[in-house]
Design brief:
The complex is a heterodimer of chains A (166) and B (372). Chain A contains three helices and eleven strands; from the N terminus they run αββαββββαβββββ. Chain A is α+β, with helices and mostly antiparallel strands and 166 residues long. Chain A has one domain: 2-Layer Sandwich (Beta Polymerase, domain 2). In chain A, the strands form four sheets. Chain A has a five-stranded mixed β-sheet with strand order 1-2-5-4-3. Chain A is elongated, with a radius of gyration of 18 Å. The mean pLDDT of chain A is 83. Chain B is of the alpha+beta class and 372 residues long. Chain B has one domain: Cytochrome-c3 Hydrogenase, chain B (Orthogonal Bundle), CATH 1.10.645.10. Helix content of chain B is 49%, strand content 14%. Chain B contains 15 helices and ten strands. The longest helix of chain B is centred in the N-terminal third of the chain and has 29 residues. Chain B is globular. The mean pLDDT of chain B is 88. Classes of the chains: A alpha+beta (166), B alpha+beta (372). At the A-B interface, strand 3, helix 3 and strand 11 of A face helix 1, helix 8, strand 8, strand 9 and strand 10 of B.
């Protein structure tokens, strides 16, 4: 299936779920967060779509005013087509349904995105930090992140705006 | 880890343990010798790769990619530059494409040799390791001759490569291949068809194809489960569509499809395929200027790109978001070893502790890439 056909299929099944976004690229589609788990289940189980592989989940911070985003790269081993789903989250309270039980790798990908951006994946059975230590403060890859001064007595290096890393 | 009943106990393997291939801690719940749960704890090597990338220019990212997958740094570079060139729509000269393929495949052979040798070491065969490292050394010598570095190359740049090949490189490489090809059957005699090795690996840690796909396992691990998926063939990048090579898959030669032996065996067959590609590339390599397409200043247009390439460990993806400045807004590396490690718990349950070591070794993980 081509990208346009995939998009039309989703739109037909879940009217109003596909949002218009001018800034997106060729293979990207923005979906409403509320229905994500149903749409994801449909995308995985529908025989014409059959997205059985979750390639990657990328968290993106669009800047100080903008929302946080989760971007899902999906691929179908059977039909060899792909799509990228973008879901925006409110910056103050970023949360979306977890797809951990659909694609098993979602478990670790969601934990990583949670670790770096603080996006809460509701329904995830074991949502904790994966790369940073459990008692780390803040969400490192957010644009407004300010690192803690010390961690268990170890001084944490700071970033200088102009000169890069100190 | 929850409640521990009766004869159950919790065993920590790592973070400093020779069989964890780096700094990884496994919390293993066992009942006697039988494993009922494996929980990997990562992050001991976390170096904020993605955060660094938001603070340096696009050119300066290349050395960081080296340090992620340090056993196949050429392939790490390759993935990044391919993604950047897709974002910026740069067409590189033919010669650069050929050089990249040659370097990428040589590094794949080197990485697989280490993986196979260390796997032998994991299950108790010491000698094959020395043979494979001896031959890997010759590949590293060739890299050193080309770009001065043996492990972390910073060789592929956006739009080109840092140095052209030395004049006699093609001959040196062909000599190496002539020497190397007969060695593969020597490895097989030493390790592959060894009865003890087969007993340790065949039928152990079976990874069914649907589980592998669901866990996002890629590369030789996925092909070991019988799925014919290779980014070089299925989503060709660079000039891989010009070469004639096969995609070996696991057949369950001595046990079940998707067992440790299959994952090992697929790597061995892949080495042969890489040699095939190398011979074709060395034959056709054209002349040209390797610096011609390197942009003076890298300023990609606004937008994002996700591009995956086939590294020795699987699908290595780069997700790059650009806002038109010389510094990336977001750069994510989708690491194949990360997904491969996530499946460990699923396929280790019910096996003995010594088998967990064999299973972990067969997944061929690099912690530098998992923790980034």
């Amino acid at each position: 299936m081509t990208f346009a056909e995939i998009k039309a299929t989703i739109e037909k099944q879940y009217p109003g779920s596909v949002l218009e976004n001018e800034g997106l690229g060729d293979h990207q589609v923005e979906l409403k967060g509320e229905q994500w788990i149903e749409i994801a289940t449909y995308m995985k189980t529908d025989p014409t779509l059959c997205f059985d592989q979750l390639e990657c989940i990328t968290g993106v911070d669009t800047g100080e005013e903008g929302p946080l985003q989760s971007r899902y790269n999906l691929h179908s081993m059977e039909h060899r087509h792909k799509i990228e789903v973008v879901i925006c989250h409110d910056r103050k309270n970023p949360k979306v349904a977890s797809i951990e039980q659909l694609w098993r790798i979602g478990d670790w990908f969601e934990r990583e995105t949670y670790d770096m951006f603080g996006i809460v994946y509701e329904g995830h059975r074991d949502l904790r930090r994966i790369l940073c230590p459990d008692d780390w403060e803040g969400w490192p890859l957010r644009k407004d992140y300010e690192g803690q001064e010390s961690y268990h007595g170890i001084i944490v290096p700071k970033i200088k705006e102009e000169e890069g890393w100190e | 880890m929850g409640i521990v009943h009766g004869d159950q106990m919790i065993l920590n393997i790592g973070p400093q343990h020779p069989s964890t291939h780096g700094v990884l801690r496994l919390e293993v719940k066992t009942d006697g010798e039988i494993v009922s749960e494996v929980k990997p704890y990562l992050g001991y090597l976390h170096r904020c790769f993605e955060k660094h990338c938001e603070n340096v220019t696009y050119e300066q990212v290349v050395p960081y990619t080296d340090r992620c997958d340090y056993l196949a740094a050429m392939n790490s570079n390759f993935g990044y530059v391919v993604a950047m060139e897709e974002l910026m729509e740069i067409k590189v000269p033919e010669r650069v494409d050929y050089i990249r393929v040659i370097m990428g495949e040589l590094n794949r052979v080197a990485s697989h040799l280490l993986a196979l040798g260390v796997y032998g070491l994991d299950v108790g065969a010491f000698t094959p390791f020395l043979y494979m490292l001896r031959d890997r050394e010759r590949i590293l010598d060739m890299f050193e001759y080309t770009c001065g570095a043996r492990l972390l190359y910073n060789y592929m740049w956006v739009g080109g490569v840092s140095h052209d090949l030395p004049k006699d490189f093609v001959q040196i490489c062909l000599d190496f291949l002539d020497y190397f090809e007969p060695q593969i059957s020597e490895y097989n005699e030493l390790l592959t068809y060894n009865k003890i090795f087969i007993e340790r690996t065949a039928d152990v840690g079976v990874l069914p194809a649907d589980v592998a796909v669901s866990f996002g396992v890629t590369g030789p691990n996925l092909r070991g489960s019988g799925v014919k998926w290779d980014v070089r063939k299925d989503e060709p990048y660079s000039i891989y569509d010009r070469f004639d090579f096969d995609v070996p898959t696991g057949t369950g030669e001595f046990g079940t499809v998707g067992d440790c032996f299959d994952r090992y065996w697929v790597r061995m067959l892949e080495v042969k395929e890489s040699v095939k590609i190398l011979r074709q590339a060395l034959k056709d390599i054209p002349d040209g200027d390797v610096h011609q397409a390197i942009p003076k200043k890298i300023r990609p247009p606004k937008g994002s790109v996700y591009r995956r390439t086939e590294s020795p460990r699987g699908d290595l993806g780069y997700y790059i978001v650009s806002d038109g400045t010389p510094v990336a807004t977001r750069l994510k590396m989708r690491s194949p070893a990360f997904t491969a490690l996530s499946v460990l718990d699923e396929i280790s349950r019910g096996w003995m502790i010594s088998d967990v070591i064999a299973i972990l070794g067969s997944l061929d993980i690099v912690l530098g890439e998992i923790d980034r």
